[in-house]
Design brief:
Pfam families: BLUF (PF04940). InterPro entries: Acylphosphatase-like_dom_sf, BLUF_domain. It comes from Methylobacterium organophilum. The chain has 5 helices and 5 strands; from the N terminus they run βαββαββααα. It is α+β, with helices and mostly antiparallel strands. A hairpin with a 2-residue loop joins strand 2 and strand 3. The chain is globular. The two termini are 27 Å apart.
Amino acid sequence: MRQKRSSLVHLIYFSRLNLSAEPAVRARELGEITRQAQKKNEFAVVTSFMIVEGNFAMQVLEGERQSIHDTFQRISVDQRHREVQIIEWREITKREFVTSFTCVSRNGTNDTHFNKAALLPALQRGTPRGAAIHALAITLQSESMSRQGIDHLFV
């Protein structure tokens, strides 16, 4: 018996960011990306987790097939991203991320996780692995939830 195709998918991509090098301006630009993405993703019923390391963005998007297609099309023409590349697109049985949009940048509190993932060399070569990006996103989400006193997730 054939399995029914799921319309729930996840897409993992990475891009180079066109953002300011000046920290205060860059923080405002990332804040604007967050506000816009949260609003659009909530409307499209998309959950996502974006990781920023240096001038690279990596994101896992989850939702219905058409919503993910439309969301990615919007990202791929956004002038704040360049060299946008899909790493993985596959069907999933359930969502793993809890918010419409979360953005985490490398900093002193999560540096250990970024070092362990060691994604920067692969990003610079243009060859990051979807599994490594996904694992880092799950780890960062779990750490954030733990800091908030949430010990498990009901999805």
